[in-house]
Known about the structure:
This protein is an alpha+beta fold. The protein has 2 domains: about 1-120 and about 260-270, Diaminopimelate Epimerase, Chain A, domain 1 (Roll); about 125-260, Diaminopimelate Epimerase, Chain A, domain 1, CATH 3.10.310.10. Helices cover about 15% and strands about 45% of the residues. The chain contains 4 helices and 17 strands. It has helices spanning about 30-35, 75-90, 160-170, 210-225; strands spanning about 1-10, 15-20, 45-50, 60-65, 95-100, 105-110, 115-120, 125-135, 135-145, 150-155, 180-190, 190-200, 205, 230-235, 240-245, 250-260, 260-270. The chain has a 17-stranded mixed beta sheet that branches. It is globular, with a radius of gyration of 18 Å. The structure holds the ligand N[C@@H](CCC[C@H](N)C(=O)O)C(=O)O. The ligand N[C@@H](CCC[C@H](N)C(=O)O)C(=O)O binds near residues 77, 201 and 211. Ligand LBFN2T5F binds near residues 78, 209 and 211. Keywords: Amino-acid biosynthesis, Cytoplasm, Isomerase, Lysine biosynthesis.
Amino acid sequence: MELRFWKMNGAGNDFILLDNRSGAVQLTPALVQRLCDRHRGVGADGVIALRPCASGRADWSWEFYNSDGSCAEMCGNGARCFARFVQRVTGWDRPVLRFETVAGVVEARYEGREVTIRLTPPTDVRLRLVLPLQSGPVELHAINTGVPHAVLFVPDADQAAVGRMGPEIRWHPTFAPRGTNVNFVQILEPGHIRVRTFERGVEGETLACGTGVTASALVTALLYEVPSPIRVRVQGGDTLRVAFRRVGDQFEEVYLTGPAEFVFEGTIQI
Ligand SMILES: N[C@@H](CCC[C@H](N)C(=O)O)C(=O)O
């Protein structure tokens, strides 16, 4: 079978997008791994498939897979790409698109080449956890912004031990059974942070992680009383923006703004 795909990226976090409205493509873990293979496939951090919204709660639905073939509940950078993809393949011409994810309904607003998404409210906030790692105890913070994230503050993101501490925290029993994504956050100035993310399901550092950027900004807001919006520089060099409405320790509205770019389209035999 010949599979048509579109390659996109959001701040360097790259995805293969498929129009699977008909349900003709069976996205097995093996097929996702093959498509995402950077040597033998198209190459990407994940695969996103457009689906009709069976529940009627939104305009469309998606399936999201990490490059290892695992399903994830949500993806911030992927959500912005998905919004532009729906425009291209369905002719969607409204200013806002709502689509269903495992984490809940996400709203996307088109702003030229950028997209702002409204995420589901964060859950499972746990501040000041101390984890006994091999290198000694480390203080970090947990928050779920659609998928689980650990956030730890470092003096210099360039020097952060992402490759060593990332997998250790990602698989730590505190976050069992499905583990967590891990963000290393440097405060650059008030309202401006830099984030490097070790991603679950990619099992490595990506150039950006939208839900990780959001998690890092919200934890920064809680710990350091930083007001909305917060600018976040990612490893790929882009700057994303996180805006929120906070009531006490609760975030009632959370938005992520950033780029979503088409790179190429093609076909592959599966
Ligand atoms: N890159 C994404 C997050 C994708 C899911 C994540 N790897 C997980 O399995 O939790 C983003 O931009 O948010």
